[in-house]
Amino acid sequence: MTSIRDATTDDLRTIIQLLADDQLGKAREILPDDAVPAGYLAAFEAITRDPNNRLIVMEDEGRVVGCCQLTFIPGLSYRGSTRGQIEGVRIAESHRNKGLGCELIAYAINACRAKGCRFVQLTSNAVRTDARRFYECLGFVASHVGMKLDLG
């Protein structure tokens, strides 16, 4: 049986492992040996302090097997509407294709509704064709062209 809740610092190591267990994450994440690297801790603290951010984990039989971050973005367009941004969605490889991704996204969408969001949006890297297909099956539409500038 699965459950979904806000993440705690005890979940951070597993979340980082989920982010790294991905074709793109392997190159950009640092798997912690013992201590969680300071950058991850600082980001976690900033997320949990901000009322417009939530870091969510999904558990299966007490083990974290999924995660995502929700950000609520107030805006002026659409008469001052708030948007829900879903990022960093991951399901452990051992638990994929079991409906858990659908369950996690449904939870995120309902959290956005509860916060009064007009839209829910997300980005997915263009090389993640399976992920894009998954989001399209859930009703997400590629209505905009996303662009990024790497400042690193």
Automatic annotation (TrEMBL):
Organism domain of life = Bacteria
N-acetyltransferase domain: residues covered:
2-152
Give the Gene Ontology MF terms in alphabetical order.
acyltransferase activity, transferring groups other than amino-acyl groups
Keywords assigned by UniProt, alphabetized? Acyltransferase, Transferase
> What Pfam families does the record point to?
Acetyltransf_1
Name of this protein: N-acetylglutamate synthase-like GNAT family acetyltransferase
Task: Please give the organism.
Answer: Chelatococcus asaccharovorans
